[in-house]
Amino acid sequence: MAKLWTEPVTTALRADGLRVADIDTSATPGFIGGKQLGKAMLPERGELLSVLQEKLFAHGRTGGDRKVLLILQGMDTAGKGGIVRHVIGSVDPQGVDHASFGVPTEEEKAHDFLWRIRKRVPTPGQLGVFDRSHYEDVLVVRVHDLVPQSEWEQRYDQINAFEKEVADAGTTIVKVAMFVSLDEQKRRLRARLERPDKYWKFSPADITERAFWPEYQKAYQAILDRTNTDYAPWYVVPADHKWYSRLAVTELLIDALTGLGLDWPKAGFDVAEQLRLLDQS
Ligand code: AMP
Ligand code: MG
After folding, report:
1. What sequence ranges are listed for the domain Polyphosphate kinase-2-related (predicted)?
2. Where do runs of H (alpha helix) occur along the chain?
3. Are 258 and 52 in contact (CB under 8 A)?
4. pTM of the predicted model as reported, rounded to 2 decimal places
């Protein structure tokens, strides 16, 4: 088959120096195959992802300490749930630790913003998935002044220090910021309002939040400028095309897991002897 990626997805989507205002949300960076091929490739790439994830799980079961953490951020309707369902859904659930972070509870509010996050960092062998994350504490919180600026300003450094600590403990961190256009969001919200089976995804606040779009763009820019590190890089995924964002995140995870260089664990027993004993049993 012809080469469908013109460059590695990790290069095509790296956030280095990127201006949020310049993002073409309908682009498909690095991929020239188009929708039909992109969609057709997903199951096959999902199978590879599944094998790699099983190696990570086996590694954890045999004393290894590596883990992978996927952090998903994006405005409402950007497709975070679709990534969980269609990308993470292709791997064995016993190796996945999925956490979604909504409005903090009273108990969570009584603690430091990283308290609830720390409790959910993946354990050895796990693929952790954060559907929203500590970044909400410099996004929605910043846009709506939920804490004083003097407090949220410090959070960028606190987040970097936290992520460094997590990375140093053997976690490969992959941060994905999904971007849809304001128009595409409108279409997706309308679709939610036109389908009774989608009402549960809708919140009236989704509409009032649209008025804050420029403030959110600014808050996203600050994140990309201040928390895009070597140990926890940001990838910017244009998300108007769901087939593309799902394929792109699949490839990012394949890259992260391949980078661990894991193999199947060696047998901790004599295979030939066990076969002989089995025959005799
Ligand atoms: P959803 O992901 O659509 O279920 O919505 C979760 C909601 O929780 C979003 O509106 C987030 O902005 C909100 N949320 C998440 N984390 C925080 C936070 N730390 N403070 C305030 N709101 C938050
Ligand atoms: Mg929502």
Report:
1. 65-257
2. 9-13, 34-61, 80-86, 106-109, 115-118, 140-143, 149-168, 182-193, 205-209, 213-226, 242-259, 271-280
3. yes
4. 0.97
The CATH number given to 9-280 is 3.40.50.300
CA-only gyration radius of the chain, Å: 20
Q: Whose CA is nearest to atom 4 of ligand 1?
A: 102
Please give the average per-residue pLDDT across 105-112, as a whole number: 98
Atom of ligand 1 nearest to the CA of 144: 21
Tokens of 236: 């910017």
Q: CA nearest 218: which of 111, 126, 139?
A: 139
98 forms beta bridges with 129
Q: What is the pLDDT of residue 1?
A: 54
Mean predicted lDDT score pLDDT of the chain: 97
- Domain range list for the chain: 9-280
Closest ligand (CA of 192): 2
Residue 2 reports pLDDT greater than 70: no
* Residues 154, 214: Cα–Cα separation, whole Å: 22
Cα(281)–Cα(135) distance, rounded to whole angstroms?
A: 57
Ligand 1 site, CB within 6 A: 76, 101-104, 132, 136-137, 140-141, 146
